[in-house]
TrEMBL record:
Pfam family, one: Acetyltransf_1
GO molecular function: acyltransferase activity, transferring groups other than amino-acyl groups
Matches recorded under CDD domains: NAT_SF
PROSITE patterns: GNAT (PS51186)
Protein name, UniProt field: N-acetyltransferase domain-containing protein
Organism: Alistipes indistinctus YIT 12060
Residue span, N-acetyltransferase domain: 4-157
Length: 186
C-alpha cells in the first residue's frame, strides 16, 4: 500500500479522490470545492490517499492539532469495501499518530450505524459521553440538520477539557470558510 499526500486541487489524483468523497458523504457533510481549497491552505490539514498499485483504495482527511488528530473524512473505494483495507489504513494512522485520534460517527440507530460503531471499536476506538451536534458544511435543509454525533477516540476517552477544545477547534478552525484559516491554525 502506497500513501501519497495531496495538498491542492491540481494534484493529478485529486479528481478521483474528490469523486469518492462526493459519493461517500451526505451533501451537508461535504465541503464545497472552494471550502476544500481553504482547508488545503491550513498547515494542520492533511489529505492522505492510499493506493494499491494504481488503484485508489481510499483516503483520510485529518487535522493535526497539538495533542490530537481529528479525522474529518475517511472513505474507502466502494469496489474494495469489505476487503480489510479500512482496518489497514486506520491501523497505519494509529501507529504513526503518536497522539489521541478523534472522529465522529452518526448516532447508533440502525444496522449500518451499529456496524460502523463495531468497526471502530474493533480498532480500539472508544465511545465518549459527550452530546455532540453535527457541524454542517452547508446551510441546506436535510434530515441530518439536527443530528447528534457520537465522539469516538483512540486509544482511550478524552476529558471534558479536551472535548471542549476539540469542539472549539472544530467550529473555529476546521469549519472556517475564509482566508483567516491559515493564520488561525499556526
Amino acid at each position: 500500500m502506497q500513501i501519497i499526500r495531496i495538498s491542492d486541487i491540481h494534484h493529478p489524483r485529486f479528481g478521483e479522490v474528490w469523486h469518492l468523497y462526493q459519493n461517500s458523504f451526505p451533501l451537508c457533510e461535504q465541503r464545497t470545492l472552494d471550502h476544500q481549497i481553504t482547508a488545503f491552505k491550513a498547515d494542520r490539514f492533511h489529505l492522505d490517499v492510499y493506493l494499491d498499485g494504481e488503484t485508489l483504495v481510499g483516503f483520510i482527511g485529518y487535522w493535526d492539532f497539538d495533542d490530537y488528530l481529528y479525522i474529518e473524512h475517511y472513505a474507502i473505494n466502494s469496489d474494495l469495501r469489505g476487503g480489510g483495507w479500512g482496518s489497514r489504513i486506520l491501523e497505519a494512522l494509529q501507529k504513526t499518530a503518536g497522539k489521541t485520534i478523534i472522529l465522529e460517527i452518526d448516532e447508533v440507530v440502525d444496522e449500518i450505524s451499529t456496524r460502523r460503531l463495531r468497526f471502530y471499536q474493533r480498532l480500539g476506538f472508544v465511545v465518549n459521553p459527550y452530546i455532540h451536534p453535527l457541524h454542517r458544511y452547508r446551510d441546506i435543509e436535510t434530515e441530518h440538520q439536527n443530528a447528534r454525533l457520537v465522539i469516538m477516540t483512540y486509544p482511550g476517552t478524552i476529558d471534558p477539557q479536551t472535548y471542549e477544545r476539540f469542539n472549539r477547534d472544530l467550529g473555529e478552525i476546521v469549519m472556517k470558510r475564509d482566508e483567516q484559516l491559515q493564520t488561525n491554525t499556526k
